[in-house]
Amino acid sequence: MDELTTRAPAVPLEAGAGPDNPPCPACGEPLFGWLAEEDRLGAPVRRCESCGLGVVGESAGTAEALAALDRLGDQERARIVNRASFSCSIGGAGWAGLQPGVHYLFTVEAARRLVAGRDQAVSRRRWAAGPSLALTWQTLLNSVTFGHNVALAALGSGSATPAEERWQRRIDALASVVLAIPAALLTLPIELGSALFRQGTIIDLRFELL
């Protein structure tokens, strides 16, 4: 048999819907498991394979997700930490965008679908260079530390989840200092390339009525 006759048919995302895969509040497609529960998050994380939205724990639906988006700005603009960013894909559970208390991890597409429900469209998207570089830099450092977001917290930006043991916290502090410059040198080409391919870490969105 040739390749065309033996290839399995594509399985639609809807086939995965069920109690363990609730609907995405942005687009209605099933949410699938992404990250196991971690102490700093308090719940496992699911993601939508269609629009990319990430949900920490359970979702109360579209209205809650839209309200969370509005809290990142207002009904005309929002600054999202992009779950579809390259830094997220390389960071995984160590991605610096995974902060305690965050319930929804937005993408541009998820935001577009959410605001469409109130007759709005994304009229502009802009890469936020400085914050994006900082978050990607911290993501790289997270790959070598026991704790999470230690360096940014020490600089007064965000909150850290420190390691449990004292000796681990000491190593984290040392690693953050020693590797700060090497990580920064890697961050610049990574984030610039990500922005070029519209996968920057932090995106400013502006909405307008249709």
Task: Give the topology, please.
Layout: H1 3-6, E1 31-35, E2 45-48, E3 54-56, H2 62-70, E4 77-81, H3 86-91, E5 104-105, H4 108-116, E6 120-127, H5 129-142, H6 150-154, H7 166-178, H8 180-196, E7 202-209
Antiparallel strand pairs: 1-2, 2-3, 3-5, 4-7, 6-7
Helix pairs in contact: 5-8
Order of helices and strands: HEEEHEHEHEHHHHE
How many structural domains can be distinguished in the coordinates? 1
Largest sheet: 4 strands, antiparallel
For the biggest β-sheet, the strand order reads: 1-2-3-5
Q: Could you say which overall geometry the principal axes of the C-alpha atoms support?
A: globular
Instruction: Please count the beta strands (DSSP E, at least 2 residues each).
Output: 7
Helix content: 25-40%
Query: Span between N and C termini?
Result: 51 Å
Q: Using the CA coordinates, give the radius of gyration.
A: 19 Å
Report the β-strand fraction as a percent range: 15-25%
What is the SS-derived class?
alpha+beta
Q: Uncertain regions: pLDDT < 50 for 5+ in a row?
A: 1-6
Number of helices: 8
